[in-house]
């Protein structure tokens, strides 16, 4: 009986982690995110499930001015300072996405301005993403393995903490959002 319960718990646990960028290593969750989001929300984020599930756990420990769940998934730049890389204009950056369950929706990849919290350049668009009616043989390869080319961003992304590449996926039927952010500078 105990064994069955443990296996079920493991199954449920793995089904929760639906999608994230696995390479380049995205910004990690750490103590700053826990402080900003509150432990209850932080624990849901840590589990890998959707942002909507984290929203359900918002309590008085959640600081709305610091934890932006729908922007880089509430992760904080300060938690992963040594994880900023240099991508000069024209750099081709290969990405891999770890997708555990398919949920039909749409997705895109953008350069985002971290202070203003807005996309400033679209790098990849999937009008349909993770179609759950398709079998593995028909999954488009570029949903989990693709490359983006860094455009000319002028001087906007020269300082660490100014810009990130955000992968964004929304599963329309399940109402689930997944995001990963990769911090970079252009010089
Ligand atoms: C931040 O990123 C670096 C480099 O990928 C990694 O080694 C480190 O463990 C990360 N920090 C945290 C808090 O996860
Ligand atoms: C692209 O991503 C943004 C999040 O940065 C989202 O708000 C927007 O709806 C997406 N658009 C499309 C067409 O996928
Ligand atoms: C998903 O795939 C099925 C089977 O090919 C197709 O009929 C359906 O239109 C696709 N969904 C979307 C949103 O494109
Ligand atoms: C992704 O792959 C699909 C086919 O699997 C193709 O139709 C689509 O154009 C590709 N998207 C981009 C942005 O290259």
UniProtKB/TrEMBL annotation:
Cofactor(s), names only, from the UniProt record: Cu(2+)
The UniProt keyword set, sorted, is:
Copper, Disulfide bond, Glycoprotein, Metal-binding, Signal
Q: Which GO terms describe its molecular function?
A: metal ion binding
Stretch forming the signal peptide: 1-17
Against InterPro entries, the record matches this protein to: Cellulose/chitin-bd_N, Starch-active_LPMO
Domain Chitin-binding type-4 residues, every copy = 18-184
Family the entry assigns: Belongs to the polysaccharide monooxygenase AA13 family.
Which PANTHER family does the entry mention?
BINDING PROTEIN, PUTATIVE (AFU_ORTHOLOGUE AFUA_1G14430)-RELATED (PTHR36575), CHITIN-BINDING TYPE-4 DOMAIN-CONTAINING PROTEIN-RELATED (PTHR36575:SF2)
Name listed for the protein in its UniProt record: Chitin-binding type-4 domain-containing protein
Organism, per UniProt?
Answer: Dendrothele bispora (strain CBS 962.96)
């Amino acid at each position: 009986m105990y064994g069955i319960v443990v296996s079920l718990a493991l199954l449920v646990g793995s089904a929760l982690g639906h999608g994230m960028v696995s390479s380049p290593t995205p910004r990690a969750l750490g103590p700053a995110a826990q402080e900003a989001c509150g432990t209850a929300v932080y624990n849901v984020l840590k589990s890998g499930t959707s942002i909507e599930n984290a929203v359900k756990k918002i309590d008085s420990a959640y600081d709305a001015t610091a934890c932006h769940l729908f922007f880089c998934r509430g992760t904080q730049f300060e938690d992963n300072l040594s994880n900023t890389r240099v991508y000069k204009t024209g750099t081709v950056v290969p990405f891999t996405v770890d997708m555990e369950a398919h949920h039909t929706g749409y997705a895109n990849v953008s350069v985002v301005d971290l202070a203003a919290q807005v996309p400033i350049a679209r790098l990849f668009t999937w009008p349909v993403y993770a179609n759950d009616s398709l079998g593995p043989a028909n999954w488009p390869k570029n949903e989990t393995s693709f490359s983006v080319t860094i455009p000319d961003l002028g001087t906007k992304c020269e300082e660490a903490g100014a810009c990130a590449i955000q992968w964004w996926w929304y599963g329309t039927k399940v109402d689930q959002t997944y995001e990963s952010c990769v911090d970079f500078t252009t010089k």
